[in-house]
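Quick one, T. Sequence first:
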Amino acid sequence: MAAIESWVWLAQVRRPQGRKGEVFAEILTDFPEKFTERRQVWLVQDASAPKLPRATNAAPRVVELLNHWLHKGGIVLHFNGINDISAAETLAGLMVAIPMEQRAPLGEDEVYVADLVGSVLFDVAPKEKSGADPARVGVIEDVDRTAGPVALLVVAGAQGEVLVPFAKSFIRKLDLEAKIVEMALPEGLVDLNAPGKA
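Structure tokens:
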């Protein structure tokens, strides 16, 4: 069995959708349009994030993707051999994944938002303005891609959760191997979510 780190999550199956074995899934990939290019995906149990009851078929297995379409903020998937509601129900909770080496290639200035999770965010605006040391904002815990045109970094800061727009104009340095992200943030942004702020 491949290690968890060797998989890239594309979606998580939520429930059956329709009567012919289709399933509704939450989209987890930065590139949902790439489902059009995929004929094979893997169904994998993610023990670290059991949002739903453990699926019946927990061992990773390759499946043929017959059809898919976007639906109500998620995606409907139809796999070969899954032809009725009962079969679809056994997939609830499984992750739709591909091996890490099959990830979509990125452009020069692009990054997989999932790779940002666990990185420490530093605000280098004080250094750029006055030469002061960069300020540690906190650890990136999640990336919210549903808030608008720009993804929001969900950062665990000293004063609580901080939401930081992952805007290209703010980014100064991304060192994903060292898990360090440096951004020049607008003054006051970090304090917006501080306790007592409305």
